[in-house]
């Protein structure tokens, strides 16, 4: 059943037994340290920090919104007892029937409970964490929504880009080249204008899923989030920017981003998701914050990583489902699974396919090169349909036993890299090469490939029936 807002979602996570409340942590490093350590656990809890040092009780920070399958299943209304590849298939099938649900404009919203303008604006009235010891400051936007409007088409974009709190009313924004929000900002700057912007730092989790997906330029993340939820989202018009703002947002900043040649500020570094400080502090655009609105006892959402462990934390199920759908839309049939390999983050995609003809699997890889997850991707691994792409050991076995590096690894150069990629940064060029690792049995040798060592299903069922206790875990 759809939930109402972030608070309702947190209550659901608590009911699932996946919420831990932490009292008395310091915004300076302790919130970051605790959530970093838990993020590496097998089953990371969601964390709600309260009683934060120097801040009033009730002014909270919520971390690890989805870092657990049950939590994600709750949001996406999926059956938690099913395997993850079934979830991805279900999302892909839903995507095929996608119909955006337009948001509903309302007059009054909880986010208007407290409004501050001009000299009253102070980003540090919130317990903005300094997440890691090597960070260049306090980052208010990590699990955020950055809302902009395209000056040409009027389309509104919602993307997740990091936002650093520089001083009371100045924030830094790091939107990488090629991101929709960045393109929109550049269009204003090209006219010598500032780009109106809103940043939401605590929101309905479905909106955050939408904001982190690489949706087609111009498509509405509000409609997408409403579709995920099965109910339209409520919005208000931003009093300063006129931008649509989620009514249930916890904290909303409104302002403008002047052209960088007019104003910019040293930003970062920030401990990024690949697990490195790849990009050093650099001059980046700033947001001149003109207004802050927040709910009573606001909840700031945060998300950061020491490295890309786990398969759920960046709601990668959607990226996998989107890529699967894109491959099918390009006419490539018989894909049986898509996964972002655990530990490799968005940099290693695995595609399983039932090969029907020579070149079949490669077609899927070429769609993946430029499709969902193209940003910062490094490897595309192709496996046969007997491999579960979400099973890392099976994928490695396929690579080890079906991929002959001399013939089966293909490299493409000059692909879209991330500005936080340690390899690209060192080279001084943030493009990346991409490898297709073809770990499928060669199609022409399918019939003659050495047979598998396996226990047949009939034999397995017979021995299980008779000696079931042997198979019980310790
Ligand atoms: C937790 C998290 C943080 C992110 N931070 C950034 C960031 O600081 N800058 C950036 O360019 N992309 C960042 N991204 C990736 C973008 O959110 C993603 O590429 C999204 O598709 C961008 O939206 P757009 O396609 O509308 O530009 C982040 C993603 C996640 C999940």
Structural notes for this entry:
By secondary structure, this protein is an alpha+beta fold. The chain has 2 domains: 100-302, Electron Transport, Fmn-binding Protein, Chain A (Pnp Oxidase, Chain A, Roll), CATH 2.30.110.10; 316-444, UbiD C-terminal domain-like (3-Layer(aba) Sandwich), CATH 3.40.1670. The protein is 26% helix and 25% strand. It has 13 helices and 22 strands. The longest helix is centred in the C-terminal third of the chain and has 14 residues, at 316-329. The mean pLDDT is 94. It binds flavin mononucleotide (FMN). Flavin mononucleotide (FMN) is lined by residues 143, 157, 159-162, 174-176, 179-181, 212-214, 303, 314, 375.
Rg calc = 23 Å
- Record field, number of beta strands: 22
Fraction of residues in β-strands: 15-25%
Number of domains: 2
Q: Characterize the main sheet.
A: 10 strands, antiparallel
CATH class of the largest domain, named Mainly Beta
First-residue to last-residue Cα separation:
37 Å
The backbone outline, from C-alpha atoms, is globular
Stretches with pLDDT under 50, minimum 5 residues:
none
Say which molecules are bound, naming each kind only once: flavin mononucleotide
Structural class: alpha+beta
């Amino acid at each position: 059943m759809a939930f109402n807002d972030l608070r309702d979602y947190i209550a659901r996570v608590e009911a699932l037994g996946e919420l831990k409340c932490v009292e008395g942590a310091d915004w300076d490093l302790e919130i970051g340290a605790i959530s970093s350590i838990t993020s590496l656990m097998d089953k990371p809890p969601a964390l709600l920090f309260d009683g934060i040092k120097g801040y009033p009780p009730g002014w909270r920070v919520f971390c690890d919104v989805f870092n657990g399958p049950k939590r994600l299943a709750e949001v996406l209304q999926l059956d938690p007892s099913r395997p993850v590849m079934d979830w991805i298939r279900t999302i892909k099938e839903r995507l095929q029937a996608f119909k955006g649900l337009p948001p509903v404009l309302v007059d009054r919203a909880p986010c208007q409970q407290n409004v501050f303008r001009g000299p009253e604006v102070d980003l540090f009235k919130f317990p903005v964490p300094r997440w890691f010891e090597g960070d260049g400051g306090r980052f208010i936007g990590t699990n955020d929504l950055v809302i902009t409007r395209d000056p040409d088409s009027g389309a509104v974009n919602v993307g997740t880009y990091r936002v650093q709190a520089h001083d009371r009313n100045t924030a830094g924004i790091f939107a990488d080249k090629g991101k929709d929000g960045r393109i929109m900002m550049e269009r204003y700057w090209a006219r010598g204008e500032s780009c109106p912007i809103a940043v939401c730092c605590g929101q309905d989790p479905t909106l955050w899923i939408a904001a982190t997906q690489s949706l087609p330029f111009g498509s509405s993340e509000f409609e997408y989030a409403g579709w995920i939820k099965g109910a339209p989202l409520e919005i208000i018009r931003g009093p300063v920017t006129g931008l649509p703002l989620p009514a249930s947002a916890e904290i909303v900043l409104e302002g403008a981003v002047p052209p960088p040649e007019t104003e910019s500020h040293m930003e970062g570094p920030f401990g990024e998701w690949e697990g490195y400080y790849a990009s050093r502090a650099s001059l980046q655009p700033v947001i001149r914050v003109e207004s802050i609105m927040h709910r009573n006892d606001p909840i700031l959402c945060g998300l950061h990583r020491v490295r890309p462990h786990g398969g759920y934390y960046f709601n990668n199920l959607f990226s996998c489902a989107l890529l699967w759908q894109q491959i099918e839309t390009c006419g490539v049939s018989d894909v049986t699974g898509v996964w972002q390999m655990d530990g490799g983050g968005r940099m290693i995609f695995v595609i399983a396919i039932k090969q029907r003809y020579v070149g079949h699997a490669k077609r899927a890889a070429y769609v993946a090169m430029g499709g969902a997850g193209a940003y910062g991707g490094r490897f595309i691994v192709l496996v046969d349909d007997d491999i579960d792409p979400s099973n890392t050991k099976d994928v490695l076995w396929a690579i080890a036993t079906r991929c002959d590096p001399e013939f089966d690894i293909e490299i493409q150069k000059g692909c879209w890299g991330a500005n936080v990629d340690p390899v690209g940064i060192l080279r001084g060029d943030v493009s990346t090469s991409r490898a297709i690792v073809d770990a499928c049995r060669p199609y022409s040798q399918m019939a003659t490939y050495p047979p598998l060592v396996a226990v047949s299903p009939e034999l397995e069922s017979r021995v299980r029936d008779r000696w079931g206790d042997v198979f019980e875990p310790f």
